[in-house]
Amino acid sequence: QVQLQESGPGLILPPQRLSLTCTVNGASITASPYHWAVIRQPPGKGLEWMGAMDYSGHCYTRSSLVRRTSCVRDTAKNQFTLLLDSVTPEDTAMYYCVRDSGNFSWDLWGQGTQVIVSS
Fold first, then answer.
1. pLDDT for residue 103 is more than 90
2. Rounded to a whole number, what is the largest CA-CA distance in the chain?
């Protein structure tokens, strides 16, 4: 059974860098054809795809966030991390790790982690 687990800071001060790590259990993040994505939902708003890393390690980011976003992975720990620079209160949201089985088919979700950006 494949499971995803998010870990984040909870509360973060602007304009720090947000590090959102996804740990995958039961499957390898290097296995084709899956992508591993981060999706967020700000309070009272809809879901927003932020970025993803594919099985080869290539990072894809939302165009509006490309200057602030990057990805890293640790294959030994089977983890990938999305980094978001210069956070503001508008980055406050529930953040989810998601498996993308192709063409934005989000078939597995983590439980989510709340991130609050506040001074």
1. no
2. 41
